[in-house]
């Protein structure tokens, strides 16, 4: 089998898991969510990732969310990437096969999270199994060392793959180590896609040669993020610097509430947009109440107008 191609660039939005207030899935909001992205000019979407709380969902729930997004994306013409990892290997294989059977555009996969790989060879062997389950669907590796505690150097990893995984096309790089990211970008004569995922270092990453971004902040501040990327692309470094500082200030005000940025970012999206994807799963009500109250004050001080009424307790 020849190596699969992957030509998407720009920005991809990590969609939040759609919950009702009672914690059950709220699949009915997905068409509205997709429409929101479309109106903001966002064509690429990740489903069941960290923001999508894939690791807190059952296999059946992940399949239902994927199936709903696939149905909606056929109407909106959006590119869908499905995260299949963060589960026992038989479930990962099942999720990869399921996503591929629905003809999604690509799949993303975390490493094994308990028996963690410690070398590029071990990680390659794991991803080979995933790739064999969906040989016709482009596969990307999800490098998120802060959450996975898998700290394999991505430059060395990509340099080692060769032709071992024909469906493998690149990585999502959720790290602040731009030196490592630059080495990954250059690996094997720039063979692989590098999707950078850090809200604070967009302009710096662009300057290092990266041109594809997956950003949780685009759920809350789509215009700001797209303006920043446009400034980077046009070479307007001063404007890019100003916009990056503006975005960083807003993200700091949100992310300080929880190191797991998915929680406060999901809350901020409901406070500042028309999209309310429900309470993050397994979040204590006391945390939610305190977070919402403080975040409203912080966002107001930055000049935003958050909704005062939010989430039924």
Helical residues, percent: 40-55%
Structural class: alpha/beta
Cα-based radius of gyration, to the nearest Å: 19 Å
Poorly predicted regions are none
Cα end-to-end separation: 53 Å
Strand order of the largest sheet: 7-6-5-4-3-2-1-8
Strand tally is 8
Beta-strand content: 5-15%
Largest beta-sheet details: 8 strands, parallel
Order of helices and strands: EHEHEHEHEHHEHEHEHHHH
> How much is the average pLDDT?
93
Q: How would you describe the shape?
A: globular
List the helices and strands and how they pair.
Blueprint: E1 10-14, H1 30-39, E2 44-47, H2 59-76, E3 79-83, H3 89-101, E4 106-109, H4 120-133, E5 139-143, H5 145-148, H6 154-161, E6 168-173, H7 178-190, E7 193-196, H8 202-207, E8 212-214, H9 222-234, H10 237-255, H11 262-272, H12 285-301
Parallel strand pairs: 1-2, 1-8, 2-3, 3-4, 4-5, 5-6, 6-7
Helix pairs in contact: 1-2, 2-3, 3-4, 4-6, 6-7, 9-10, 11-12
Question: Which labels suit this protein?
Answer:
313 residues, globular, 12 helices, eight-stranded parallel beta sheet, 8 strands, alpha/beta
Task: Describe, in plain words, how this protein is organized in 3D.
The protein is of the alpha/beta class. Helices cover 47% and strands 12% of the residues. It contains twelve helices and eight strands. The chain has helices at residues 30-39, 59-76, 89-101, 120-133, 145-148, 154-161, 178-190, 202-207, 222-234, 237-255, 262-272, 285-301; strands at residues 10-14, 44-47, 79-83, 106-109, 139-143, 168-173, 193-196, 212-214. Strands 7-6-5-4-3-2-1-8 form an eight-stranded parallel beta sheet, covered by helices on one side. The longest helix is centred in the last third of the chain and has 19 residues, at 237-255.
